[in-house]
Design a protein that fits this description.
2 strands; 49% helix; mainly alpha
């Protein structure tokens, strides 16, 4: 029965999640393009991405493609022969 308890415990070199949450990010990468950025810009970018009042800038071609895909999704139940 002691063997079952040992299987439930995490490995000894595993860092607890509470410690990981408090670590400072010193080598951050932008979630948008993967480029390295400094911690101040990373924090600013994270705040901007979380704020729902900031309008996101999307390439016009991508925005048009999204609208066409949404339109296709609406038409698909009505016209099932669409690819």
């Amino acid at each position: 029965m002691l063997g079952n308890v040992a299987q439930a415990l995490p490995p000894p070199d595993d860092v607890p999640e509470e410690v990981l949450r408090t670590e400072l990010i010193t080598e951050a990468r932008s979630p948008l393009d993967g480029e390295p950025i400094d911690p101040v810009n990373y924090a600013t970018l994270q705040d901007q991405l979380r704020d729902p009042n900031i309008e996101t800038v999307v390439n016009t071609e991508i925005a048009q493609l999204i609208q066409l895909l949404e339109f296709r999704r609406v038409l698909k139940p009505i016209l099932p022969f669409l690819p």
